[in-house]
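TA notes, week 10

Several of you asked for a full example with nothing omitted. So below is the full record: structure tokens for the whole chain, then the designed sequence directly under it. When grading your own attempts, check the secondary structure regions first.
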């Protein structure tokens, strides 16, 4: 069995009480050897969720970051603060950041360069092949053998809509990306799929060629659905 990643993006969907209840429910998930499970709570509650999941098999990651170090950036979150909380990875470039917070490709790519040169790992979301800055990645990724960078294909039309991409479509995009990664000698970078993943479709998606895992929004905020996805493979 290949290594697989299941990443839950809680977005801004849960209040503190519900976030803590969910974390308490998932802390007893014991992962299979080939599974890496991560959840991304809102940054406001990261500290509390890290404490709950500290001894568990589930890692806590961030949904986003703004800058690398401390500074005068009102409302911002920096990588050094996340590291201080015990967080070792962040999502970047989620389509909701791009569309609802107006983060441009240029801003996202600048942040990608920042995080690739930091101590944190990153999941870079893209909704089309053209959005992946392969040259930037090649120039800033020191080591192709670790999990410093993960890519996540998330077609915008499939996010939160209940409309999942077909397996053929997912395989087509993932294979195209994988082939370009191979051309750049970056073939070890995992590629996740995200967009209305649920317990009914997760097995087929996770078994698809060149799919190394799933990035899950809505279904990851409900314990029975998250468990359903984890247990589907
Ligand atoms: C997401 O937020 O990354 C996502 C894929 O959401 P959903 O699973 O709800 O479509």
């Amino acid at each position: 069995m290949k290594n697989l990643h299941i990443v839950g993006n809680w977005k801004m969907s849960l209040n503190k009480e519900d976030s803590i209840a969910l974390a308490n429910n998932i802390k007893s998930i014991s992962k299979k050897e080939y599974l890496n499970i991560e959840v991304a709570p809102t940054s406001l509650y990261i500290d509390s969720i890290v404490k709950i999941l500290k001894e568990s098999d589930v890692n806590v990651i961030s949904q986003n970051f703004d800058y690398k170090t401390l500074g005068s950036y009102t409302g911002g979150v920096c990588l050094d603060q996340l590291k201080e909380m015990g967080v070792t990875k962040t999502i970047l470039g989620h389509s909701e950041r791009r569309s609802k917070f107006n983060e441009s490709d240029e801003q996202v790519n600048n942040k990608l360069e920042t995080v690739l040169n930091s101590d944190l790992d990153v999941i870079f979301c893209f909704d089309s092949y053209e959005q992946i800055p392969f040259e930037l990645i090649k120039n800033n990724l020191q080591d192709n053998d670790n999990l410093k960078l993960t890519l996540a294909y998330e077609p915008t039309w499939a996010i939160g809509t209940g409309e999942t991409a077909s397996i053929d479509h997912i395989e087509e995009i993932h294979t195209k990306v994988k082939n370009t990664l191979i051309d750049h000698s970056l073939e070890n970078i995992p590629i996740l799929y995200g967009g209305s993943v649920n317990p009914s479709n997760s097995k087929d998606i996770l078994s698809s060629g060149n799919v190394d895992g799933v990035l899950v929004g809505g279904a990851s905020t409900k314990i029975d659905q998250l468990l359903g996805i984890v247990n589907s493979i």
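The first helix runs from residue 16 to 26. Use that as a sanity check on your answer.
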